[in-house]
Amino acid sequence: MKRITINEAKNYVGEEVEIGAWVANKRSSGKIAFLQLRDGTAFFQGIVVKSEVGDDVFQLAKGLNQETSIMVKGTIQEDSRSKFGYEIVVSGVEVIGESHDYPITPKEHGTEFLMDHRHLWLRSSKQHAIMQIRNELIRATYEFFNKEGFMKIDPPILTASAAEDTTELFHTEYFDEEAYLSQSGQLYMEAAAMAFGKVFSFGPTFRAEKSKTRRHLIEFWMIEPEMAFMDQDQSLEVQEQYVAYLVQSVLDNCDYALNVLERDKELLKKYTELPFPRISYDDAVKLLNENGFDDVKWGDDFGSPHETFIASSFDKPVFILNYPKAIKPFYMKPHPDRDDVVLCADMIAPEGYGEIIGGSEREVDFDNLSAAIKKFGLTEEDYAWYLDLRKYGTVPHSGFGLGLERAVTWISGTEHIRESIPFPRLLNRIYP
Ligand code: 4AD
Ligand code: MG
């Protein structure tokens, strides 16, 4: 008998197959039992009819506890009443692993309880749908950058110097030296761009941020493209094409997951239409001030309510351009006509999901960069290798970082970022 997975069921209508699965839920009467089955690929229903399987199999099926693992045999048929469209008419059941008192029952549970049981919570249909969207974004990322001629380069995780804010570093020992967990691969990706032209990385990054919000993780995954011979305006075009590609890929390949999550697909379609709007930081401050946000002055960084308001003035992701130099890292290139702002942009997602991309054109002049490093209180020695890039054939270059979990949270329409990564690391949580 052919062993298949649930997501292959559509190819086996009318055939007898076997499937390894878990019992997600169950209901039964005296004559018929309905098993909600899951196997990691999808969820669907198994029907056990007493008069067809006989009393022994029926009693066994009827007595299965939630999350018992089974090998189920039966015939696939169409099921027009379910979202999935297919079901299995069961002829035999073999128990593989019993399960007793599974803690996550179909009733409602509190967030902390679910977080304590994250290793089991991942089995639920909503979490399954979110992880499918995460997987699709990863797949589409490789596809997009390969198609565009980028090379995947892996920057180190253990580093000797800071790439972003030095207050948010995780310290660790590196034999006799001090080291940090990477906050961003950017500086290494700049070296890679000088070696390979167009490059992108995808890896974990760590920030000891004391932020407890629905947008912050301590450990998150970032995609960081870096492009030689490219200015900021050209980089913005790559960014919007990439994000539109991610959304389109999810629309094309994750229809079932979007249905489970009840995500509005018409809204998502809108996010594939280019270009995305652009607004300067100066105009964003004005917009906020005109709309009752009196607390924001030129020079301040934006908080979530500000980003949410700015985003709500547009129906697509929006770029905020050219932030004040004083609130951005040392490596950004100053605006050619103004020395108080830099050539950078943040992409803010619609619907209140906040910043999903941060990027900039990089300072390429040796003397300016060296001065900026000192001004930020960093030591030139630590960045000697980085300064070398400006000594041997420096070129205009730009890059950006997309936070994978921010993108997953937004595209899947999930309320909190903790559900967009399998095992979230949060302020006060490293279990499980
Ligand atoms: O804006 P950030 O700090 O930019 C950089 O790290 C640059 N070095 C990237 C580059 O130019 N190569 O971070 C980039 C993105 C943010 O826009 C956000 O999506 C995500 O990373 N991010 C976080 N995601 C989850 N939790 C956090 N604590 C995050 N901090 C940043
Ligand atoms: Mg940022």
TrEMBL record:
The lineage of its organism: Bacteria, Bacillati, Bacillota, Bacilli, Lactobacillales. It comes from Carnobacterium maltaromaticum (Carnobacterium piscicola). GO terms for molecular function: asparagine-tRNA ligase activity; ATP binding; catalytic activity, acting on a protein; nucleic acid binding; transferase activity. Residues 133-432 form the Aminoacyl-transfer RNA synthetases class-II family profile domain. PANTHER family: ASPARAGINE--TRNA LIGASE, MITOCHONDRIAL-RELATED, ASPARTYL/LYSYL-TRNA SYNTHETASE. This is Asparagine--tRNA ligase. GO terms for cellular component: cytoplasm. Keywords: Aminoacyl-tRNA synthetase, ATP-binding, Cytoplasm, Ligase, Nucleotide-binding, Protein biosynthesis. Its EC number is 6.1.1.22.
